[in-house]
Amino acid sequence: MTSENTDIAATFESERGALYAFIARRVNDRDQAEVLLQTTYERATQSLQQKSAKSIRALLYVIARNLITDHYRQKGFRSQFWVQDHDVETEISSATDPERQAIGQERLDMAAAVIRELPEKCRYAFVENRFNFRSVEAIAGDLSLSTSMVKKHIQKAILAIQQAIEHSERG
User: Fold this and answer.
1) % of the chain beyond a pLDDT of 90
2) Are the beta carbons of 47 and 59 closer than 8 angstroms?
3) pTM confidence score
4) CA angle 68, 65, 34 (to 5 degrees)
5) Would you put residue 53 in left (φ > 0), alpha (ψ -120 to 50) or beta?
6) Hey, which of 16, 95, 137, 146 would disulfide with 101, CB 3.0 to 4.6 Å?
7) Cβ(143)–Cβ(125) under 8 Å?
8) Would you call 62 helix, strand, or coil by DSSP?
9) Residues with Cβ within 8 Å of residue 142, at least 6 apart in sequence
10) Is 118 in a helix, a strand, or coil?
11) Residues in Cβ contact with 168 at an 8 Å cutoff, skipping those fewer than 6 apart
12) Secondary structure letter of residue 144 according to DSSP
């Protein structure tokens, strides 16, 4: 086994639980989440045979997100998490006209402003969970809070972003 294969295997094993949770939250099907998790590992291994990656962990999550997108494309509808989490960057990259791109950029800017204004622990919990893909348990340890409180902070942040976007769209 080469060094890169050892690194991918070790990183995959250490991230397996969090990566599974990341996928399962988005596909809402445990069996499908397990299939996508295994496919993520296989594709990451193939990818690293062709080229190196700065961060194996980041590569795993990018592959997982792409597989989730493919899963929903095959089913013929957009994933619910895009709407819930306002994955504006995906909307911007898939936008075909300048007006739609401008709307997406406006939403992204608004979400960033809301995140900056969140209370410190709420902002930390949200950013670590949604952007750095850290588990609620790990964040709870960092903040010396219960997992329940961390989940509440994350929900508070999501709600604040949703409300800001809805408010701007109403007028």
Assistant:
1) 26
2) yes
3) 0.46
4) 55
5) beta
6) 95
7) yes
8) helix
9) 124, 128
10) coil
11) 106, 107, 110
12) T
